Amino acid sequence: MARLQLLLAEYWPHLVFLISVAASTAAVIHAAMTKHDVRAAIGWVGVVLFSPLLGALLYFVAGINRIRQHRGTPELGETPEPDGARQPDRLDISLAAGPQFASMKVLGDRVSAFPLVDGNRVQPLAGGDEAYPAMIRAIESAQESIALQTYIFDRDDAGRAMAQALIAARERGVKVRVLVDAVGAKYSQPPITGMLSRGKVRTALFLSSGLGLRVAYTNLRSHRKILVVDGQVGFTGGMNIRASFTTRPGRETSRDTHFQVEGPVVAQLLASFAHDWAFTTRERLEGELWRPTPRIAGTVPARCVQSGPDRTIASTHDMLLGALAVAQRNIRIQSPYFLPDLPLIAALATAARRGVQVDIVIPGKNNLRLVNYAMYAQLDQVVRTGCRVWVAAGAFDHSKLMTVDGTWSYIGSSNLDPRSLRLNFELDMELYDAATAAWIEQRIDALIATASRETLATLRAQSFARRLRNKVIWLASPYL
Protein backbone atom coordinates (compact mmCIF):
# COMPACT_ATOMS: atom_id res chain seq x y z
CA MET A 1 0.00 0.00 0.00
CA ALA A 2 2.81 2.38 0.91
CA ARG A 3 4.58 1.52 -2.33
CA LEU A 4 1.41 2.23 -4.32
CA GLN A 5 1.04 5.60 -2.63
CA LEU A 6 4.68 6.34 -3.41
CA LEU A 7 4.18 5.44 -7.06
CA LEU A 8 1.06 7.58 -7.28
CA ALA A 9 2.84 10.52 -5.66
CA GLU A 10 5.69 10.22 -8.13
CA TYR A 11 3.85 9.35 -11.32
CA TRP A 12 0.43 11.03 -10.90
CA PRO A 13 1.14 13.54 -13.72
CA HIS A 14 1.76 10.64 -16.08
CA LEU A 15 -1.44 8.90 -14.97
CA VAL A 16 -3.46 12.07 -15.44
CA PHE A 17 -1.93 12.44 -18.90
CA LEU A 18 -2.80 8.85 -19.85
CA ILE A 19 -6.37 9.19 -18.53
CA SER A 20 -6.74 12.48 -20.40
CA VAL A 21 -5.50 10.95 -23.66
CA ALA A 22 -7.79 7.94 -23.28
CA ALA A 23 -10.86 10.04 -22.41
CA SER A 24 -10.17 12.55 -25.17
CA THR A 25 -9.61 9.82 -27.76
CA ALA A 26 -12.86 8.10 -26.79
CA ALA A 27 -14.79 11.39 -26.89
CA VAL A 28 -13.36 12.39 -30.29
CA ILE A 29 -14.16 8.97 -31.79
CA HIS A 30 -17.68 9.02 -30.36
CA ALA A 31 -18.35 12.54 -31.69
CA ALA A 32 -17.05 11.69 -35.14
CA MET A 33 -19.03 8.46 -35.36
CA THR A 34 -22.37 9.60 -33.91
CA LYS A 35 -22.91 13.27 -34.80
CA HIS A 36 -24.95 13.83 -37.93
CA ASP A 37 -24.20 17.57 -38.14
CA VAL A 38 -20.61 18.12 -39.24
CA ARG A 39 -20.50 21.48 -37.45
CA ALA A 40 -21.51 19.85 -34.18
CA ALA A 41 -18.89 17.13 -34.67
CA ILE A 42 -16.14 19.68 -35.44
CA GLY A 43 -17.18 21.82 -32.49
CA TRP A 44 -17.05 18.97 -29.99
CA VAL A 45 -13.77 17.65 -31.38
CA GLY A 46 -12.30 21.14 -30.96
CA VAL A 47 -13.56 21.43 -27.38
CA VAL A 48 -12.12 18.03 -26.48
CA LEU A 49 -8.73 18.61 -28.11
CA PHE A 50 -8.17 22.09 -26.72
CA SER A 51 -9.37 21.16 -23.21
CA PRO A 52 -8.38 17.50 -23.03
CA LEU A 53 -9.76 16.29 -19.68
CA LEU A 54 -12.35 19.02 -19.07
CA GLY A 55 -13.54 18.84 -22.67
CA ALA A 56 -14.05 15.08 -22.48
CA LEU A 57 -16.00 15.49 -19.24
CA LEU A 58 -18.15 18.22 -20.78
CA TYR A 59 -18.82 16.02 -23.80
CA PHE A 60 -19.85 13.14 -21.55
CA VAL A 61 -22.34 15.38 -19.73
CA ALA A 62 -23.78 17.48 -22.55
CA GLY A 63 -22.65 16.01 -25.87
CA ILE A 64 -23.91 12.44 -25.82
CA ASN A 65 -27.53 11.92 -26.83
CA ARG A 66 -28.62 9.16 -24.45
CA ILE A 67 -32.31 9.69 -25.08
CA ARG A 68 -32.23 8.83 -28.78
CA GLN A 69 -31.15 5.29 -28.11
CA HIS A 70 -34.05 4.17 -25.95
CA ARG A 71 -36.76 6.74 -25.37
CA GLY A 72 -38.76 5.96 -28.46
CA THR A 73 -38.82 2.20 -28.02
CA PRO A 74 -42.31 0.75 -28.52
CA GLU A 75 -42.40 -0.98 -25.11
CA LEU A 76 -42.48 2.41 -23.36
CA GLY A 77 -45.70 3.52 -25.01
CA GLU A 78 -48.21 2.95 -27.74
CA THR A 79 -47.00 5.63 -30.15
CA PRO A 80 -45.63 4.04 -33.35
CA GLU A 81 -42.25 5.13 -34.59
CA PRO A 82 -41.85 7.20 -37.77
CA ASP A 83 -40.78 5.10 -40.70
CA GLY A 84 -39.27 6.74 -43.79
CA ALA A 85 -40.54 3.88 -45.94
CA ARG A 86 -44.12 3.93 -44.61
CA GLN A 87 -46.64 4.28 -47.39
CA PRO A 88 -48.95 7.33 -47.40
CA ASP A 89 -52.59 6.76 -46.56
CA ARG A 90 -55.37 7.37 -49.07
CA LEU A 91 -56.71 10.70 -47.85
CA ASP A 92 -56.51 13.04 -50.88
CA ILE A 93 -55.64 16.48 -49.55
CA SER A 94 -55.15 18.13 -52.94
CA LEU A 95 -58.89 18.56 -53.49
CA ALA A 96 -59.38 20.55 -50.29
CA ALA A 97 -56.06 22.35 -50.01
CA GLY A 98 -54.63 22.62 -53.52
CA PRO A 99 -52.40 20.37 -55.63
CA GLN A 100 -49.14 21.73 -54.18
CA PHE A 101 -50.06 20.29 -50.78
CA ALA A 102 -50.35 16.71 -52.03
CA SER A 103 -46.57 16.35 -51.70
CA MET A 104 -46.74 18.02 -48.28
CA LYS A 105 -49.12 15.33 -47.09
CA VAL A 106 -46.81 12.60 -48.39
CA LEU A 107 -43.95 14.21 -46.47
CA GLY A 108 -46.01 14.25 -43.28
CA ASP A 109 -47.00 10.61 -43.80
CA ARG A 110 -43.33 9.65 -43.89
CA VAL A 111 -42.03 12.01 -41.21
CA SER A 112 -44.67 11.77 -38.50
CA ALA A 113 -45.66 8.70 -36.56
CA PHE A 114 -49.29 9.75 -37.00
CA PRO A 115 -51.54 9.72 -40.08
CA LEU A 116 -53.40 12.76 -41.35
CA VAL A 117 -56.96 12.38 -40.06
CA ASP A 118 -60.09 14.17 -41.20
CA GLY A 119 -63.16 15.15 -39.17
CA ASN A 120 -61.61 17.60 -36.71
CA ARG A 121 -62.74 20.93 -35.31
CA VAL A 122 -60.20 23.60 -34.36
CA GLN A 123 -60.87 26.70 -32.28
CA PRO A 124 -58.08 29.29 -31.78
CA LEU A 125 -57.78 30.78 -28.28
CA ALA A 126 -56.10 34.15 -27.85
CA GLY A 127 -54.14 34.42 -24.62
CA GLY A 128 -54.81 33.16 -21.14
CA ASP A 129 -58.08 35.08 -20.86
CA GLU A 130 -59.57 32.73 -23.45
CA ALA A 131 -57.46 29.59 -23.08
CA TYR A 132 -57.43 29.03 -19.30
CA PRO A 133 -61.21 29.35 -18.75
CA ALA A 134 -61.83 26.99 -21.68
CA MET A 135 -59.36 24.47 -20.25
CA ILE A 136 -60.89 24.71 -16.76
CA ARG A 137 -64.42 24.28 -18.16
CA ALA A 138 -63.27 21.12 -19.93
CA ILE A 139 -61.65 19.82 -16.72
CA GLU A 140 -64.81 20.58 -14.74
CA SER A 141 -66.87 18.61 -17.25
CA ALA A 142 -64.55 15.58 -17.16
CA GLN A 143 -66.21 12.28 -16.31
CA GLU A 144 -63.47 9.71 -16.82
CA SER A 145 -59.93 10.92 -17.52
CA ILE A 146 -57.70 14.00 -17.71
CA ALA A 147 -54.17 14.08 -19.13
CA LEU A 148 -52.18 17.30 -18.76
CA GLN A 149 -48.63 17.90 -19.93
CA THR A 150 -46.84 21.24 -19.85
CA TYR A 151 -43.43 22.82 -19.62
CA ILE A 152 -44.17 25.56 -17.04
CA PHE A 153 -46.95 25.22 -14.46
CA ASP A 154 -46.56 28.20 -12.15
CA ARG A 155 -47.91 28.38 -8.63
CA ASP A 156 -49.70 31.70 -9.19
CA ASP A 157 -53.34 32.68 -9.62
CA ALA A 158 -53.65 30.94 -12.99
CA GLY A 159 -51.76 27.85 -11.86
CA ARG A 160 -53.67 27.47 -8.59
CA ALA A 161 -57.01 27.78 -10.40
CA MET A 162 -55.97 25.03 -12.81
CA ALA A 163 -54.65 22.87 -9.96
CA GLN A 164 -57.86 23.29 -7.94
CA ALA A 165 -59.90 22.17 -10.96
CA LEU A 166 -57.69 19.08 -11.35
CA ILE A 167 -57.95 18.25 -7.64
CA ALA A 168 -61.73 18.63 -7.72
CA ALA A 169 -61.91 16.32 -10.73
CA ARG A 170 -59.87 13.66 -8.91
CA GLU A 171 -62.10 13.98 -5.85
CA ARG A 172 -65.19 13.16 -7.90
CA GLY A 173 -63.53 10.03 -9.29
CA VAL A 174 -61.87 11.21 -12.51
CA LYS A 175 -58.50 9.61 -13.30
CA VAL A 176 -55.99 12.47 -13.53
CA ARG A 177 -52.39 12.39 -14.74
CA VAL A 178 -50.17 15.50 -14.78
CA LEU A 179 -46.70 15.60 -16.37
CA VAL A 180 -44.53 18.69 -15.86
CA ASP A 181 -41.02 19.22 -17.13
CA ALA A 182 -38.49 19.00 -14.31
CA VAL A 183 -36.85 22.30 -15.27
CA GLY A 184 -40.12 24.10 -15.97
CA ALA A 185 -41.50 23.06 -12.58
CA LYS A 186 -38.82 25.17 -10.90
CA TYR A 187 -39.95 28.44 -12.48
CA SER A 188 -42.01 29.16 -9.37
CA GLN A 189 -41.18 28.39 -5.76
CA PRO A 190 -42.62 26.47 -4.11
CA PRO A 191 -43.57 24.45 -7.20
CA ILE A 192 -47.18 23.60 -8.01
CA THR A 193 -46.36 19.89 -7.76
CA GLY A 194 -46.62 20.07 -3.98
CA MET A 195 -50.18 21.37 -4.15
CA LEU A 196 -51.13 18.70 -6.69
CA SER A 197 -49.56 15.93 -4.60
CA ARG A 198 -51.38 17.05 -1.47
CA GLY A 199 -54.56 16.93 -3.54
CA LYS A 200 -53.67 13.32 -4.44
CA VAL A 201 -53.31 14.12 -8.13
CA ARG A 202 -50.86 11.71 -9.78
CA THR A 203 -48.04 14.04 -10.87
CA ALA A 204 -44.64 13.30 -12.40
CA LEU A 205 -41.61 15.32 -13.49
CA PHE A 206 -40.23 14.67 -16.96
CA LEU A 207 -36.47 13.93 -16.86
CA SER A 208 -36.19 14.82 -13.22
CA SER A 209 -32.47 15.23 -12.61
CA GLY A 210 -30.14 15.72 -9.72
CA LEU A 211 -26.67 14.59 -8.80
CA GLY A 212 -25.17 11.59 -10.51
CA LEU A 213 -25.59 10.39 -14.06
CA ARG A 214 -28.99 12.05 -14.42
CA VAL A 215 -27.21 15.41 -14.66
CA ALA A 216 -26.47 14.49 -18.28
CA TYR A 217 -30.14 15.11 -19.10
CA THR A 218 -30.41 18.59 -17.58
CA ASN A 219 -30.05 20.32 -20.95
CA LEU A 220 -33.09 18.51 -22.34
CA ARG A 221 -36.66 19.73 -21.87
CA SER A 222 -40.19 18.51 -22.48
CA HIS A 223 -41.68 21.60 -24.08
CA ARG A 224 -44.95 19.90 -25.08
CA LYS A 225 -48.32 21.38 -24.07
CA ILE A 226 -51.18 18.89 -24.04
CA LEU A 227 -54.51 18.69 -22.26
CA VAL A 228 -56.94 15.90 -23.14
CA VAL A 229 -60.26 15.42 -21.33
CA ASP A 230 -62.17 12.13 -21.61
CA GLY A 231 -60.30 11.44 -24.84
CA GLN A 232 -62.69 13.77 -26.68
CA VAL A 233 -61.53 17.36 -26.15
CA GLY A 234 -57.92 18.44 -26.52
CA PHE A 235 -55.88 21.59 -26.10
CA THR A 236 -52.45 22.26 -27.54
CA GLY A 237 -50.29 25.13 -28.71
CA GLY A 238 -47.58 27.28 -27.21
CA MET A 239 -49.04 28.36 -23.88
CA ASN A 240 -47.59 27.46 -20.53
CA ILE A 241 -49.73 27.85 -17.40
CA ARG A 242 -48.84 31.17 -15.79
CA ALA A 243 -50.70 34.30 -14.76
CA SER A 244 -48.59 36.63 -16.91
CA PHE A 245 -50.75 35.61 -19.89
CA THR A 246 -53.94 36.86 -18.20
CA THR A 247 -55.23 40.40 -17.77
CA ARG A 248 -54.31 41.76 -14.34
CA PRO A 249 -54.82 45.33 -13.09
CA GLY A 250 -51.65 47.39 -13.26
CA ARG A 251 -49.59 44.71 -15.02
CA GLU A 252 -48.71 44.17 -18.66
CA THR A 253 -50.28 41.07 -20.19
CA SER A 254 -48.04 38.82 -22.25
CA ARG A 255 -49.65 37.39 -25.37
CA ASP A 256 -49.83 33.85 -26.65
CA THR A 257 -52.02 31.51 -28.69
CA HIS A 258 -53.54 28.13 -27.88
CA PHE A 259 -55.99 25.85 -29.67
CA GLN A 260 -58.92 23.70 -28.65
CA VAL A 261 -59.38 20.66 -30.85
CA GLU A 262 -62.00 17.95 -31.15
CA GLY A 263 -62.12 14.94 -33.43
CA PRO A 264 -59.82 12.01 -34.29
CA VAL A 265 -56.63 14.05 -33.86
CA VAL A 266 -57.32 14.17 -30.10
CA ALA A 267 -56.36 10.49 -29.98
CA GLN A 268 -52.92 11.48 -31.26
CA LEU A 269 -52.54 14.06 -28.50
CA LEU A 270 -53.44 11.42 -25.93
CA ALA A 271 -51.09 8.86 -27.49
CA SER A 272 -48.23 11.34 -27.29
CA PHE A 273 -48.99 12.02 -23.63
CA ALA A 274 -49.27 8.30 -22.85
CA HIS A 275 -45.90 7.69 -24.48
CA ASP A 276 -44.18 10.37 -22.38
CA TRP A 277 -46.00 9.28 -19.23
CA ALA A 278 -44.89 5.67 -19.70
CA PHE A 279 -41.32 6.80 -20.30
CA THR A 280 -41.36 8.90 -17.11
CA THR A 281 -43.30 6.67 -14.72
CA ARG A 282 -43.32 3.21 -16.39
CA GLU A 283 -47.11 3.24 -16.01
CA ARG A 284 -48.95 2.24 -19.17
CA LEU A 285 -52.19 4.11 -19.72
CA GLU A 286 -54.18 1.28 -21.24
CA GLY A 287 -57.78 0.29 -21.67
CA GLU A 288 -60.81 2.10 -23.03
CA LEU A 289 -60.43 4.83 -20.37
CA TRP A 290 -57.19 6.01 -22.00
CA ARG A 291 -57.86 4.79 -25.53
CA PRO A 292 -61.36 6.03 -26.41
CA THR A 293 -62.40 6.72 -29.99
CA PRO A 294 -62.90 10.49 -30.46
CA ARG A 295 -66.09 11.57 -32.19
CA ILE A 296 -66.12 13.23 -35.61
CA ALA A 297 -66.42 16.93 -34.80
CA GLY A 298 -65.72 18.90 -37.99
CA THR A 299 -64.09 18.87 -41.39
CA VAL A 300 -60.46 19.83 -40.72
CA PRO A 301 -57.67 17.39 -41.71
CA ALA A 302 -54.99 17.44 -39.00
CA ARG A 303 -52.02 15.50 -37.73
CA CYS A 304 -49.70 15.68 -34.70
CA VAL A 305 -45.95 15.84 -35.27
CA GLN A 306 -43.64 14.84 -32.43
CA SER A 307 -40.03 15.96 -32.39
CA GLY A 308 -37.22 15.65 -29.88
CA PRO A 309 -33.67 14.45 -29.26
CA ASP A 310 -34.63 10.88 -30.07
CA ARG A 311 -35.71 9.14 -33.28
CA THR A 312 -37.95 12.10 -34.15
CA ILE A 313 -35.18 14.69 -33.98
CA ALA A 314 -35.66 16.02 -37.54
CA SER A 315 -39.46 15.79 -37.79
CA THR A 316 -40.44 19.44 -37.40
CA HIS A 317 -37.36 20.59 -39.28
CA ASP A 318 -38.38 18.42 -42.24
CA MET A 319 -41.99 19.63 -42.09
CA LEU A 320 -40.89 23.26 -42.13
CA LEU A 321 -38.54 22.71 -45.07
CA GLY A 322 -41.33 20.96 -46.96
CA ALA A 323 -43.83 23.76 -46.33
CA LEU A 324 -41.36 26.43 -47.44
CA ALA A 325 -40.69 24.45 -50.62
CA VAL A 326 -44.34 24.11 -51.70
CA ALA A 327 -45.39 27.71 -50.91
CA GLN A 328 -46.60 29.62 -53.97
CA ARG A 329 -48.07 32.90 -52.70
CA ASN A 330 -47.22 33.75 -49.12
CA ILE A 331 -45.62 32.51 -45.93
CA ARG A 332 -46.41 34.08 -42.58
CA ILE A 333 -44.36 33.19 -39.51
CA GLN A 334 -44.56 34.39 -35.93
CA SER A 335 -41.92 33.22 -33.48
CA PRO A 336 -40.73 34.63 -30.15
CA TYR A 337 -37.29 33.07 -30.64
CA PHE A 338 -36.35 33.20 -34.32
CA LEU A 339 -32.99 31.46 -34.75
CA PRO A 340 -33.31 29.19 -37.81
CA ASP A 341 -30.36 27.10 -38.90
CA LEU A 342 -28.69 27.41 -42.30
CA PRO A 343 -31.00 24.97 -44.16
CA LEU A 344 -34.08 26.86 -42.96
CA ILE A 345 -32.49 30.22 -43.78
CA ALA A 346 -31.72 28.91 -47.27
CA ALA A 347 -35.29 27.65 -47.68
CA LEU A 348 -36.71 31.02 -46.59
CA ALA A 349 -34.35 32.79 -48.98
CA THR A 350 -35.28 30.49 -51.86
CA ALA A 351 -38.99 31.02 -51.26
CA ALA A 352 -38.56 34.81 -51.23
CA ARG A 353 -36.46 34.71 -54.40
CA ARG A 354 -39.16 32.61 -56.09
CA GLY A 355 -41.55 35.50 -55.54
CA VAL A 356 -43.29 34.17 -52.43
CA GLN A 357 -44.06 36.93 -49.94
CA VAL A 358 -42.37 35.94 -46.69
CA ASP A 359 -43.34 37.82 -43.52
CA ILE A 360 -41.66 37.06 -40.20
CA VAL A 361 -42.87 38.66 -36.97
CA ILE A 362 -40.69 38.75 -33.86
CA PRO A 363 -41.44 40.45 -30.54
CA GLY A 364 -40.16 43.94 -29.76
CA LYS A 365 -40.08 42.96 -26.08
CA ASN A 366 -38.53 39.59 -25.35
CA ASN A 367 -38.50 37.69 -22.07
CA LEU A 368 -35.13 36.12 -22.95
CA ARG A 369 -32.64 38.92 -23.50
CA LEU A 370 -29.76 36.70 -24.63
CA VAL A 371 -31.94 34.98 -27.22
CA ASN A 372 -33.04 38.37 -28.49
CA TYR A 373 -29.40 39.42 -28.95
CA ALA A 374 -28.66 36.19 -30.86
CA MET A 375 -31.72 36.73 -33.07
CA TYR A 376 -30.48 40.11 -34.21
CA ALA A 377 -27.08 38.66 -35.03
CA GLN A 378 -28.49 36.70 -37.97
CA LEU A 379 -31.53 38.68 -39.12
CA ASP A 380 -29.48 40.10 -41.98
CA GLN A 381 -29.27 36.59 -43.49
CA VAL A 382 -33.01 36.53 -44.19
CA VAL A 383 -33.53 40.26 -44.76
CA ARG A 384 -31.01 40.50 -47.60
CA THR A 385 -32.80 37.80 -49.58
CA GLY A 386 -36.16 39.55 -49.64
CA CYS A 387 -37.86 38.24 -46.50
CA ARG A 388 -39.67 40.91 -44.53
CA VAL A 389 -38.93 40.97 -40.79
CA TRP A 390 -41.30 42.86 -38.52
CA VAL A 391 -40.71 43.82 -34.90
CA ALA A 392 -44.05 43.78 -33.09
CA ALA A 393 -45.01 46.61 -30.76
CA GLY A 394 -46.52 46.15 -27.33
CA ALA A 395 -46.22 43.34 -24.82
CA PHE A 396 -44.15 40.20 -25.25
CA ASP A 397 -45.82 37.70 -27.58
CA HIS A 398 -45.00 34.03 -27.05
CA SER A 399 -47.04 32.71 -30.02
CA LYS A 400 -45.57 30.17 -32.43
CA LEU A 401 -47.58 30.31 -35.65
CA MET A 402 -47.00 29.59 -39.31
CA THR A 403 -49.30 29.51 -42.32
CA VAL A 404 -48.71 28.95 -46.04
CA ASP A 405 -50.89 30.08 -48.95
CA GLY A 406 -53.92 30.62 -46.75
CA THR A 407 -54.46 26.88 -46.32
CA TRP A 408 -51.74 25.01 -44.43
CA SER A 409 -50.94 25.94 -40.83
CA TYR A 410 -48.41 24.70 -38.31
CA ILE A 411 -49.17 25.26 -34.64
CA GLY A 412 -47.77 23.94 -31.41
CA SER A 413 -44.88 24.25 -29.02
CA SER A 414 -41.87 24.55 -31.35
CA ASN A 415 -39.89 27.73 -31.69
CA LEU A 416 -37.67 28.33 -34.70
CA ASP A 417 -34.47 27.97 -32.72
CA PRO A 418 -31.84 25.27 -32.12
CA ARG A 419 -33.26 24.30 -28.73
CA SER A 420 -36.70 23.50 -30.12
CA LEU A 421 -35.36 21.90 -33.29
CA ARG A 422 -32.75 19.67 -31.62
CA LEU A 423 -32.90 19.60 -27.80
CA ASN A 424 -36.52 19.94 -26.71
CA PHE A 425 -39.27 17.36 -26.90
CA GLU A 426 -41.92 19.24 -28.87
CA LEU A 427 -45.42 18.60 -30.14
CA ASP A 428 -46.87 20.42 -33.13
CA MET A 429 -49.88 19.98 -35.37
CA GLU A 430 -50.33 20.55 -39.07
CA LEU A 431 -53.75 21.72 -40.21
CA TYR A 432 -55.29 21.98 -43.68
CA ASP A 433 -57.98 24.54 -43.00
CA ALA A 434 -58.65 27.91 -44.65
CA ALA A 435 -60.53 29.25 -41.60
CA THR A 436 -57.67 28.55 -39.19
CA ALA A 437 -55.13 29.93 -41.67
CA ALA A 438 -57.26 33.07 -42.09
CA TRP A 439 -57.41 33.55 -38.31
CA ILE A 440 -53.61 33.25 -38.07
CA GLU A 441 -53.10 35.60 -41.02
CA GLN A 442 -55.38 38.21 -39.49
CA ARG A 443 -53.55 37.96 -36.19
CA ILE A 444 -50.15 38.37 -37.83
CA ASP A 445 -51.38 41.16 -40.14
CA ALA A 446 -52.70 43.06 -37.10
CA LEU A 447 -49.24 42.86 -35.54
CA ILE A 448 -47.59 43.97 -38.78
CA ALA A 449 -49.90 47.01 -38.95
CA THR A 450 -48.26 48.51 -35.85
CA ALA A 451 -44.81 46.92 -36.20
CA SER A 452 -41.52 48.40 -37.32
CA ARG A 453 -39.63 46.74 -40.15
CA GLU A 454 -36.04 45.63 -39.88
CA THR A 455 -33.95 46.26 -42.99
CA LEU A 456 -30.28 46.00 -43.78
CA ALA A 457 -30.06 49.74 -43.14
CA THR A 458 -31.60 49.52 -39.66
CA LEU A 459 -29.44 46.54 -38.75
CA ARG A 460 -26.25 48.28 -39.92
CA ALA A 461 -27.23 51.41 -38.02
CA GLN A 462 -26.66 49.59 -34.74
CA SER A 463 -23.42 50.43 -32.99
CA PHE A 464 -20.41 48.19 -33.52
CA ALA A 465 -20.42 47.29 -29.81
CA ARG A 466 -24.04 46.13 -30.01
CA ARG A 467 -23.45 44.11 -33.18
CA LEU A 468 -20.36 42.50 -31.65
CA ARG A 469 -22.28 41.64 -28.48
CA ASN A 470 -25.02 40.05 -30.57
CA LYS A 471 -22.54 37.95 -32.54
CA VAL A 472 -20.79 36.73 -29.39
CA ILE A 473 -24.10 35.67 -27.83
CA TRP A 474 -25.13 34.10 -31.15
CA LEU A 475 -22.20 31.67 -30.89
CA ALA A 476 -23.91 30.09 -27.87
CA SER A 477 -27.38 30.03 -29.50
CA PRO A 478 -27.67 26.21 -29.62
CA TYR A 479 -27.79 26.15 -25.82
CA LEU A 480 -29.77 29.32 -25.01
TrEMBL record:
GO terms for biological process: cardiolipin biosynthetic process. Pfam families: PLDc_2 (PF13091), PLDc_N (PF13396). Residues 218-245, 393-420 form the PLD phosphodiesterase domain. One of its GO terms (molecular function) is cardiolipin synthase activity. Keywords: Cell membrane, Membrane, Transferase, Transmembrane, Transmembrane helix. It is found in: Cell membrane. The chain crosses the membrane at residues 41-62. Its main location: membrane. It comes from the Bacteria. It is a multi-pass membrane protein. Its EC number is 2.7.8.-. InterPro entries: CLS_N, PLD-like_dom, PLipase_D/transphosphatidylase. One of its GO terms (cellular component) is plasma membrane. PANTHER family: CARDIOLIPIN SYNTHASE, PHOSPHOLIPASE D. This is Cardiolipin synthetase. The lineage of its organism: Bacteria, Pseudomonadati, Pseudomonadota, Betaproteobacteria, Burkholderiales.
